[in-house]
Every structure is written in C-alpha cells, then in structure tokens.
From TrEMBL:
It is found in: Cell membrane. SUPFAM superfamilies: Multidrug resistance efflux transporter EmrE. It is a multi-pass membrane protein. GO terms for cellular component: plasma membrane. Gene3D superfamilies: 1.10.3730.20. Its main location: membrane. This is Small multidrug resistance protein. The chain crosses the membrane at residues 33-50, 57-78, 84-102. InterPro entries: EmrE-like (IPR037185), Small_drug/metabolite_transptr (IPR000390), Small_multidrug_res (IPR045324). Keywords: Cell membrane, Membrane, Transmembrane, Transmembrane helix, Transport.
Length: 106
C-alpha cells in the first residue's frame, strides 16, 4: 500500500505541475483551484507513504515521477521539444526511480 500511496502522490504532482501552466500564474480561477487541490493531495499522499518508507527514497521517487510525467505531458500537451538528449535524461531519471524501488523492496 505504501507504494500505491507514493505513486498516487507522484501522479498528483504531475497533475498540479501541469495545472500551474493552465492556471497562467494563478490568474485563471478554475485551473488555480484544481492546482492547489492537487498540491495538497500530493503532499498528503506523500506524507502517508512516509509513514513506512525512508524519506530520501520516497522524496526522490516522488519528484522523479513528477519530473518524468511533467516532461512527457509537456511534450504532448504543450509541444515542448522531444529532443533525444531530453529523452535520454528522462530515461536516467526513470532508471533511478526503478533502482530506488528495487533497493527499497522491503
């Protein structure tokens, strides 16, 4: 369950990061509300996961999920560049996430 909570927190981080773009600096009400709700929910689920996971591992995976998901959605939604070097770097982050999960398999 701790990993489900952490993955949920990471996916919510992606949601609020994308929401920041849509909120246009918190000038659009509805996207701003969803962004803040996503922030609160993401931190809440992270806090629940931290009950049973080491802080460094959980935080690195949380931010890693956020980084990977945000870059991928940035490419899809906002036509950000999908250059090979960016994709390779995201691959390294993904490898790090997997490595931390494997090393924390208890």
């Amino acid at each position: 369950m701790k990993w489900v909570l952490l993955i949920t927190a990471g996916l919510l981080e992606v949601a609020w990061a994308i929401g920041l773009k849509y909120s246009q600096g918190f000038t659009k009400l509805l996207p701003s509300i969803f962004t803040v709700m996503g922030m609160i929910a993401s931190i809440y689920f992270l806090s629940l996961a931290l009950r049973d996971l080491p802080l460094g591992t959980a935080y690195a995976i949380w931010t890693g999920i956020g980084a990977v998901g945000t870059v991928i959605l940035g490419i899809i939604l906002f036509k950000e560049p999908a250059e090979l070097i960016r994709l390779i770097c995201i691959g390294f982050i993904l490898i790090g996430i997997i490595g931390l999960k494997i090393s924390s398999a208890h």
